[in-house]
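Q: My labmate handed me this sequence with no annotations at all. I'd like to see what the chain might look like in three dimensions before we decide whether it's worth expressing. Could you predict it?
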Amino acid sequence: MSEFLPISKIPTKDTQLASSVEKLKGMSSQLKKGVDDKKLKEAAQEFESILTFTMLKHMREAVPKSDLLKSSAEEIYQSMMDQEVTKSAAKTKGLGIADMLYRQFS
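A: Here is what I predict for the chain of 106 residues:
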């Protein structure tokens, strides 16, 4: 008996998150057709990366900002750094979301 939320019930307000959820839905249906484990693991890691990036982005938006050092270059750099950190974290142990997804679909 699984306690996980089915993929079809995951809310998808963010477009990146929505595309990742769609990939996972596709992987879920293709698993029955014999898709290899490597592709499933990559899709799960990508989903975790996008999910953690979205959480981090919204957490940063919640913190009040000073106008003293505000620049568009800083925002771009911060976003790029957050993307790379979340990708790297998802490939290692990360939050464990990718592992849970992989186990549920395999």
